[in-house]
Amino acid sequence: MERFVMIEEISDGKLYTSEDMVNADAQGCKGCSWCCENMCDTIVLDPYDIYSLCKGLDKDFASLLLEEYIEIGLHDLLSMPHIKDKGRGCGFLSDAKRCTVHTFRPGICRLFPLGRYYHDDTFSYILQTHECRVEERDKVKVREWLEIEDLPAYEDYVLKWHAFVKNLTNFMKEPAEPGVKRNIHILFLKKFYEAPYDLSKDFYPQISERMKAWEDSSMA
Q1: pTM score, whole prediction
Q2: ∠ CA(178), CA(176), CA(170), 5° rounding?
């Protein structure tokens, strides 16, 4: 979910790469679960997040909705899933206030308190300064903080998905024939989220194929 603000307003003003050290390690959060309890609808899930949750939990997208772990909302003018607040915060939060899906947690959760700053057809990592409630944090390499297997492939996907969504959002801002935008909402959600991914195969070729098919269709 994009925010249009000055980088100095939300971060320390520095741009980081995955190889940089950053003051982000909350040392197990020290018993704090504020972000897990209060930021659910801001945890917008991309297709890789859904792929990972389905694989890790052995569930499909419909089950995640039915069991109220996620819900659909309007993000960047498109229908996308986000974490559902179940009254006490994220449904993946245990009674002991610990994440039960930590090893396959969504990308935004992996980042926090980092964020992404998109610029010049690429992106950098930023350290958000007004989000995490844990004040004493240690330095950690961004790559190690993210704990993502094959990080270059993931970063390439993130960049392509961001550009794809941005182009589609720009289209949604333009006038269109009645029913066109409604169809886009339905088809976008179906093609990139509801339609099952083959969990036994690598995610990245599958999402690339879906994005190409969309761009080659009349919906592009």
Answers
A1: 0.93
A2: 135
**Residue 11: predicted pLDDT:** 84
Is 1 part of any domain?
no
Is residue 101 domain-resident? yes
Residue 206: give the domain boundaries. 7-216
Residue-wise pLDDT for 97-132, tens only, equals 899 999 999 999 999 999 999 998 999 999 998 888
CA distance 141 to 52: 23
Total structural domains within the chain: 1
Q: How far apart are CA 111 and CA 100, in angstroms?
A: 17
70-75 and 122-127: which strand pairing? unpaired
Does residue 184 lie within any of the structural domains?
yes
- Cis ω for the linkage preceding 106 (within 30 of 0): no
Q: Which amino acid is at 201?
A: K
Report if residue 209 sits inside a domain.
Answer: yes
